[in-house]
Design goal:
By secondary structure, the chain is an alpha+beta fold. The chain folds into four domains: 6-94; 106-194, Beta-Lactamase (2-Layer Sandwich); 199-269, Helix Hairpins, CATH 1.10.287; 273-429, Heat Shock Protein 90 (2-Layer Sandwich), CATH 3.30.565.10. 55% of the residues lie in helices and 17% in strands. Strand 9 (340-348) and strand 10 (351-358) form a beta hairpin. It is elongated and about 150 Å long. It binds adenosine-5'-diphosphate.
Length: 429
Amino acid sequence: MKVYTWKQLSWAIFLIYVPVIILGLLTGLLIELLLVSTIVHIGWHYYFLKKLNDWLWVSKSMVLPQGRSVWEHAYIGIHNMQQRNRKRRNRLANVISRFREGSEALPDAVVVFKSDGEIVWCNKLAQYQLGFKWPDDAGDNITNLIRHPDFVEYLRSEAYNEPLDLISPINIDKILEFRVMPYAKNQRLLIVRDVTNYRQMDETRRNFVANVSHELRTPLTVLQGYIEILEMSAQDNKMQLKTIKVLDQQTARMCSLVEQLMTLSKIEGAATLDFHESINIPALLTQIENEAITLGRKKSHSVQFKVDPKLSVVGDEMQLRSAMSNLVYNAINYTPEGGSIKVLWKKLPEGAYFCVMDTGDGIAPEHILHLTERFYRVDSSRSRDTGGSGLGLSIVKHALSHYDTQLQIESNIGEGSQFSFIISNNYVQ
Ligand code: ADP
């Protein structure tokens, strides 16, 4: 049906009042007839207005009431609007019920809450895993139900890129992983997963590696002792001396691998660092520098350390020593004879900056992302020659993760590499 136009409205008034005016002029009762017809006209409109009111508020029927003229248009317009709203509501209800069904099918607890913490909805698993009661807890603040200070801080910080592991609020034997995502307008989606098995497996793996490495140390030391005795007793027998040399090299490699495995398990397994302990980094770097100069001399390297003598940080000395020395020794190992190695330790506005630059062969871009993976080596045969195990950069990555920082690697084939990191001002002394 088309819109009721001004033209139609004018015609309706014209058809009512022109006959009344003519009749009034003929009979001499113009005013009376105009008054009566206006009252009848208003009454007619009131009748349809009442009908509309009854339809909308009393009968609420789906069937359209009968209307005339402009009222018919108004009824149809309202009816069409209602239909459209109903369809929109149904579509919305479908979306919500699909979201809820999907959330119920997930193997995780799901809670929707507002940015001020007010709980909007939760699935069944949230009731089992977090002890929520539904619908009793609707409208409650989420921090009243998950009271752990770390969770409250996690919500407050709004730094949701990393998940948070916490003991379950209802079962201390379970470890839950909490992930929060901004969702719709001013809402948050909390996804909670039971990670007890993964964490236990991880722990078992770490303990296993640590124990095996520890147990291998004693037989290796014994082997090394016997190899030394054999070397002394072989005297001039060239064949024997060659064999013993290979034995010695391989045992040394195994010892270094065991040491690195133990260091990695220690760093990986370490809880948060004790940030009260101050580390004298300039002194530590002097030791590393002396070792690097000795090692570099064999390959005629130029080794240069530029260290800010007043710049120190807090944390675990063993971990930072491992991180820094691994980067420096790598530079020496992977830089050909006559190359140069520069080490920087200086203050930047963002924090303490450590950087190792070398003029080695460089690393192809496709390897750079994988370098910090355990046992990853770009060229395993070359790495083996240098005694490398592929664990050094993994140790660096884990040590730095305790400082919430990352290793930056820049390298160009044929030009050299640069390994650096920044320890934020929070840890600088
Ligand atoms: P590895 O014990 O084999 O040295 P790392 O984890 O320390 O193990 O290093 C992984 C790989 O990264 C090495 O095998 C080597 O190929 C490459 N790499 C590390 N540092 C450098 C460097 N300064 N220059 C060139 N390649 C490097």
